[in-house]
Amino acid sequence: MFSSLAERLSKSLRNIINKGRLTEDNIKDTIREVRKALLEADVTLSVVKKFIINVKKKAIGHEINKSFTPGQEFIKIVRNELILSMGDQDNDLNLSTQPPAIILIIGLQGAGKTTTVAKIAKWIQNKYKKKILITSTDVYRAAAIKQLEILSSQININFYLSNINQKPINITKEAIQHAKLKFYDILLIDTAGRLHIDEKMMNEIQEIQNFSNPIETLLVVDSMMGQDAINMATNFNKYLSISGIILTKTDSDSRSGIALSMRYITGKSIKFIGTGEKITNLEIFHPERMADKILGMNKVISIIKDIEEKINKSDIQNLTKKLKQGHDFNLNDFLMQIKEMKKMGGLNYFIDKFSNNEILSNNLLGNDQNALNKIEAIIYSMTPKERNNPSIIKGSRKRRISLGSGTQIQDINKLLKNFDNIKKIMKKIKNNGISKIMRNIKNILPKHL
Ligand SMILES: Nc1nc2c(ncn2[C@@H]2O[C@H](COP(=O)(O)OP(=O)(O)OP(=O)(O)O)[C@@H](O)[C@H]2O)c(=O)[nH]1
Questions:
Q1: Which one of 44, 156, 305, 323 has the largest count of C-beta atoms within 10 Å of its C-beta?
Q2: Rounded to the nearest whole angstrom, what is the distance from the C-alpha of residue 441 to the centroid of ligand 1?
Q3: Segments making up each domain of the chain, as ranges
Q4: Where is the AAA+ ATPase domain (predicted)?
Q5: What is the pLDDT of residues 360-391, one digit of tens each?
Q6: How far apart are CA 131 and CA 186, in angstroms?
Q7: What is the pLDDT of residues 140-186, one digit of tens each?
Q8: Cα of 12 from ligand 1 centre, angstroms
Q9: The whole model's pTM is what?
Q10: Which residue ranges have their beta carbon within 6 Å of ligand 1?
């Protein structure tokens, strides 16, 4: 259904299911998967190499907790390493200074600076209820000042109007003066887009930074730039003291590896990510969430949420209880399961995710909603006796059931053939309990669930 790194790791470790420890030998293939996946996510090669060394150090000799599979243990190690590498805590803005706290926004042309200035202003206003002023020192792009003025008025934040005949440093001086006079808490300064190789422009921004002494100098980076962004950020950091990075356009198809490389190479924290064109599309950077995105686990998280929201827990608990008391799983129980599964959209979906697909490898009757309806209809056409013991269903009864349920005889055969497999899954649930299976999966999921 989806081939996430997490899934690939589990698969490549499936053959060592009963070994107690991770060893250099049994994780060889899995390490290769990690390397491949990180490179596919556009993580810089040197970063991949260092990352792999760290993961190996932590994995080799690692004892496998009895309630986890080696795949889950390994995913936990990789996930923790990703979080650690991208900063092990969430990043907020530093605003603790004598007002006005100045935030300088810099970056290449088109990176998303102007939009981001408005987004940050809105974010600060919502979170801290501060008095905020915005200004633009972009005198090179004709419409830049107007663009920010319009955005500011849309979000109800005061704008210090500059004009293209002024020097950027003079706009900065005047805006700071104005902010002091009018007791603003925060001054956000937008700057023109520039290339790090443009010495004149880099000197200009240096002068602005030296004069304004910002508490935050945030480099806005377009995440779609890929590897080039790392070079650019390193060079900007040589000219200026950068306090953090904002990755924009993370809603695009851009690969998430840039977040890992950026932090590894520049050593700077990613403070925010832009997740769309709207003013509200700005989020504090959560290393945990990005780690999940790189691992492809965000999909798993939504599956779990779905299950938790939609599944009727008391029915499942009743069934588990019944099974534990020695009750044999029958087609009536299966019918109840089908109803739950229908809410989640597809039987194989459930079986695939929660039984590791170890037992049931074939589709039952296809994996769509339709198949579930068919199974339901077949079971409804059976007598209570047949539901308790389907092995008594012979040729003539099959024909009657097929007529009654509007299905083909081969559908009934397939269902009966697979019933044994389903019973095996239920035995697994009986031994482990559905809650334990869920817990195992949850243990490798983030705390913010
Ligand atoms: N999808 C998406 N688009 C974004 C995001 N951030 C900015 N943009 C878009 O990127 C384009 C450029 O954004 P601007 O804010 O004008 O970029 P800039 O860095 O100020 O550009 P210059 O002033 O020319 O240097 C605009 O169309 C924005 O709407 C984001 O997080 N996601």
A1: 44
A2: 38
A3: 1-86, 101-285, 312-444
A4: 99-277
A5: 333 344 445 566 678 888 888 888 889 888 88
A6: 6
A7: 987 999 999 999 999 999 999 999 999 999 999 999 999 999 999 99
A8: 41
A9: 0.68
A10: 107, 109-115, 138, 141, 144, 193, 248-249, 251-252, 274-277, 281
